[in-house]
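[#protein-structures] MJ: dropping N-acetyltransferase domain-containing protein here for a structure pass
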Amino acid sequence: MELREIKDSEIGKVKELRDYAFRVPASGGEADFNYWAENARRLGLFYGEHLLAQVLTYPLNVSILGESFSMGGIAYVASYPEYRNAGLIRRLMEESLVRMKEAGQLVSYLSPFSIPFYRKFGYEVFTEKIEVEILSNALPDMGTVPGRVMRFSSEDGTGISVVRELYNRFALTKKSGMMMRDDAWWLRLARRGYTKEIAVYCDMNGVTMGYMLFTLDSEVFKVHEMVALDYEAERGLWRFVGTHGMMVDRVVAKNVGSLRDIALAFPSPDFQKREILDFMMRIVDVEAFLGKYRFERTENTLYLQVEDETAPWNDGIFEVRGSFVKRLEQTSEPVLAISIQALGQMLMGFVRPRDLVYYGKATASEVTIATWEKAVPHVRSDFYDAF
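AK: finished. structure tokens for N-acetyltransferase domain-containing protein:
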């Protein structure tokens, strides 16, 4: 059995395994799949010329505290059923992490078929999503707004340029963990029909402050994502949705914020809501990640003891003073002892240091916990994309 990169001429074998394992067509069509397969790092385990298992890694970027981090997006992890439980995927995942580190990809994301399975490789949930379903006769009255909504579509270059600028501002300033979308990624969204209809909210001065990507599917108004820089824009966009109440039976919306956002935004949030944990992440290179991460200004030096069974280069003690990071053989200073999974959750903003200690995901003294609480910014992680 040989572990090696899958050649361009062997992408057909990747498709065959994809089709056999997932049983559903690629949602963006074959042209989209081909583009990403050609641009991915493709690792496979072969017996002779036969592909037995595969892992693809997309070269992507995400925003963490306003900084762009290179990210390896894991996709199409699969093996033929007769080779499952033989350790093939473990070998491929471990080698993928080595290749990501060599390529400078500091973090990695994936969409799990099983959360416990990928926890074994150091990944952990870092964002929670909700999907809401509102019957048209239950759409709330969001009141009046001083601005107005303008319509665009993916066929209008102006519309895409407007929403790109708004998305970038949102991703860099309002959230942590969001995709930094380039031209290829916007084309991917267009292939999936997400940008077919665009509503942009402009305030009373004509400044664009929010947008919504949506489609009308039979008698369902589908909101694919909503980005608002202030509450006025959010109300204006929901009001726009409400104007379609006589045309549709219900509204189904995703990527519109958290459950708390919905509770705060709607005067009467009494409608169906489904919470989803659908993406996981891990830090690939702890030392490099800590050196780039924007800790809050503090006079305290931080000491961290990381446990990482899958990527041994991360296993050890780190001293952090601002952007200066040093690996230590040992220390007598009080440390925050933490797994690679919990470290990713904490620094992405999904959970606070004190909560991790409470749930036994980390250990530290009360003084050390207080120090880390001051040092880790209060951010909210989210991710509106998929692969």
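MJ: nice. The chain has twelve helices and 20 strands.
AK: one more thing. The first helix runs from residue 11 to 22.
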